[in-house]
Amino acid sequence: MSIIEAARGLRIPPLHPPRRGVFVSFEGGDGAGKSTQMQMLRNHLVTERSVAEDLILTTREPGGTPMGESIRELLLHGEDVEPRAEALLYAADRAHHISTVVKPHLARGGLVLSDRYLDSSVAYQGAGRDLDAEEITSLSLWAVDGLLPHRTILLDVPTQALEERRDPAILDRLEQAGLEFHEAVRQEFLDLAAADPERYAVIDGTLTREEVHAQVLTAVAEVLSLFDPTFEPAPPTRHRDEQ
Ligand code: TYD
After folding, report:
1. Which helix (H) or strand (E) holds 94?
2. Pocket flag, ligand 1, residue 115 (CB < 6 Å)
3. Cα 187 to ligand 1 centroid, rounded to whole Å
4. Atom 21 of ligand 1 has which residue's CA nearest to it?
5. What sign has the CA pseudo-torsion 144, 42, 28, 73?
6. Whose CA is nearest to atom 1 of ligand 1?
7. What is the phi/psi pair of residue 75, to 5°?
8. Which of 19, 37, 146, 201 is deepest in the core (most CB within 10 A)?
9. Residue 67 vs residue 78, higher pLDDT
10. Which fold has domain 13-224?
11. Do strands 22-28 and 151-156 pair parallel, antiparallel, or not at all (unpaired)?
12. Going by C-beta distance under 8 Å and a sequence separation of 6 or more, which residues neighbour residue 130?
């Protein structure tokens, strides 16, 4: 078979939410308050709803695995990366994260709260950079075998307001990218949300933390009812030399 015949494009598996467990992702510009809101949701579930701590996995992309943290360091604090290489690194981080951390937790019936998922790639690498948003979407969906969250919470904050929230002394590579880039990213997130209102909940991130939190609770109420009460505890971790 010639290389042309072999190159039929990436096979995108059917898009699907997880069969067990609940998967919620948080998206938005840098400084929109995603990590604060994830923490508030986690605390609420543990203290007010008596959800067992080990049922909730809070994780992030890039990162979320030891290899992912190395990729994160390269992407955010390393040298400039060529756009295709950058897109592949985010996809590689995501493939590894989903298969080794997120899917096992979901398969046990757990709840996953992820700080960013593939919509970030579409918005940042697709709209913000020179690459095509459709190609980035295909690449990411291939990397995760079609897995989509039950719910994606978009914390929307106007670009100028986000700029004012950030400390210029500690900006990473993407945060330094300028207003026009961040405006394109914001618009792409809003377009993605408008195209898929079933999965997305858009929340005004300029409200107070408590107001946003209340809206997050409303946004996840329905999907949390999918929760599997027969959550299986994680098998004990075995050391490499015991295997
Ligand atoms: P984030 O975790 O929000 O940064 P911080 O720790 O500063 O809050 O996100 C890290 C950066 O990575 C952010 O600028 C967005 C970018 N990013 C992409 O460009 N593509 C992606 O697929 C992901 C997941 C993140």
Report:
1. helix 83-97
2. yes
3. 16
4. 121
5. negative
6. 30
7. -75, -40
8. 37
9. 67
10. Rossmann fold (3.40.50)
11. parallel
12. 83
All structural domains of the chain with their residue ranges: 13-224
Bigger pLDDT: 92 vs 181: 92
Amino acid of residue 46: V
Of the candidates 155, 151, 163, the residue with the CA atom closest to the CA atom of residue 204: 155
Q: Nearest C-alpha to atom 25 of ligand 1 is from which residue?
A: 120
pTM for this prediction: 0.92
Q: What's the one-letter identity of residue 8?
A: R
Residue entry with tokens 């992820």: 114
**60 close to ligand 1 (CB < 6 Angstrom):** yes
In the beta sheet, which residues pair with residue 27?
154
Q: What is the pLDDT of residues 191-231, one digit of tens each?
A: 999 999 999 999 999 999 999 999 999 999 999 988 777 77
- For a ligand 1 pocket test, name from 80, 96, 137, 174 the mutation site with the most ligand atoms within 8 angstroms of its C-beta: 174
Contact of 17 with 150, CB cutoff 8 Å: yes
Atom of ligand 1 nearest to the CA of 31: 8
Q: Give the number of C-alpha atoms closer than 13 A to the C-alpha of residue 139, restricted to the C-beta side.
A: 23
